[in-house]
Amino acid sequence: MKQLSSDAPQSIQSVDILRGLVMVLMAIDHVRVVERAKNWFTNALAVFGRVPMFYYLMHILLIHISALIVNYLREGASHQEWYATAPFAGVPEANRWPLSLLYLVFLIDVAILYVKCRWYDNYKKSHPEKGWLKYL
């Protein structure tokens, strides 16, 4: 009983055991909550989750193309030299996009990626004989 009322700090091991137990309990509860939450948003996220490598490869290409198009529409030139050393590119302060434009391009890109990923997911499901599709 003296150990419980001691002023000495708890050991790292006991804190880690307690933290681990709490994290496991939170994960179990989180799984239950996620399983009950089936709606259009979770279904859209599931589309991205079923084709992660395809999404990853496509988003790099799409973001680059989007940046070139938006720069061409805003500046009259695509300014490819700005992206030669991305992500450490130095875009002049006067040519940086406003946040509202960035969000708009982001939403358009996510919508395009959703359509492409849904198409690829359906293609992958309809062609199970092509085993290599599961890696993309």
Secondary structure: helix percent = 55-70%
Q: Tally the helices: what do you get?
A: 4
Largest sheet geometry: none
Strand content: under 5%
Q: How many separate domains make up the residues?
A: 1
Low-confidence stretches: none
Q: For the record, give the distance between the C-alpha atoms at the N and C termini, rounded to a whole number.
A: 59 Å
Task: Write down the overall mean pLDDT.
Answer: 81
Number of strands: 0
Evaluate the radius of gyration: 24 Å
- The secondary structure category is mainly alpha
Large-scale geometry: extended
- Secondary-structure element series: HHHH
How would you sum up this structure, described in words?
This protein has 136 residues and is mostly helical. The protein has one domain (40-135). It has four helices and no strands. It has helices at residues 12-36, 40-50, 52-75, 99-126. α2 packs across α4 (99-126) and α3 runs antiparallel to α4. The longest helix has 28 residues, at 99-126. The chain starts with 11 loop residues before the first helix and ends in a 10-residue tail after the last helix. The model has no long low-confidence stretch (mean pLDDT 81).
